[in-house]
Amino acid sequence: MPGSKNLRTFILVAIFLGIITFPRIPLNAFIVTINAPPVLSIIDDTGGFLLLSFDGFSPGSETNVGVVNYTIQSNTMATGTVADALSARLSGPFTDIEFKASAGSFTNAGTPDFSSLQSTSAGFITIGIADVALASKQPGTGDGDVLLDGTITVNYKAVLSTDHAAGIENQSLIVTLKDGQ
């Protein structure tokens, strides 16, 4: 085709000189940030109330055992062992009554690599107004060492230390999950 070579040459020269331009597609670039917020959570299944009743009123009399299941979740645990990861204390003392707790087994809801909780004592321990360790955090493996997800059962009871008159006493029980950080 006559003149087609000249036309192609003209188009190439025009593109090179910027006489003919092609539309540009606008670009919009941005940074995507994904945040995994820190979680440190302990939730009990009692609804905020635990009733313990004595079987007598003389020294050594014990209440029924109250069972509380705690759902524990954390993605901020310190690596390694945390000796007092789960602790408890009372807001004030009971009169001539020993309040006691015993942490049971931990059921892991995460992967086998996750950390776990292990009771710090074999039986009931007395809980007072200062923090008392109920369970320690046991290390997981790899990245799972900072993760904790599961349920632990804690049994509570009270024991009379002297003769006790009829009545009701209330104190707040504060159970704390510490990440060890």
SSE layout and pairings?
Elements: H1 4-17, E1 40-44, E2 66-74, E3 82-90, E4 97-108, E5 116-119, E6 125-127, E7 132-138, E8 148-160, E9 173-177
Antiparallel strand pairs: 1-2, 2-8, 3-7, 3-9, 4-6, 4-8, 5-7
Describe this structure in words.
The chain is mainly beta. The chain has a single domain, classed as Immunoglobulin-like (Sandwich). It is 8% helix and 37% strand. It is built from one helix and nine strands, in the order αβββββββββ. It has a five-stranded antiparallel beta sheet with strand order 1-2-8-4-6, with no helix packed on it. The protein is rod-shaped, with a radius of gyration of 33 Å. 17% of the residues are buried.
Please, what is the oligomeric state?
single chain
Cα Rg: 33 Å
The main sheet orders its strands as: 1-2-8-4-6
CATH overall fold name: Immunoglobulin-like
Number of strands: 9
In N-to-C order, the SSE pattern is: HEEEEEEEEE
Number of domains as seen in the coordinates = 1
Helix content: under 10%
In DSSP terms (H or I, runs of 4 or more residues), the helix count works out at 1
Average pLDDT works out at 89
Structural class: mainly beta
CATH-scheme architecture: Sandwich
Q: Which ranges are low-confidence, i.e. pLDDT below 50, for 5 or more consecutive residues? A: none
How big a fraction of the residues is strand?
35-45%
User: In angstroms, what separates the terminal alpha carbons?
Assistant: 81 Å
How would the global form be characterised? rod-shaped
- The CATH class turns out to be Mainly Beta
Give a quick account of the main beta sheet: strands, pairing sense, barrel closure.
5 strands, antiparallel
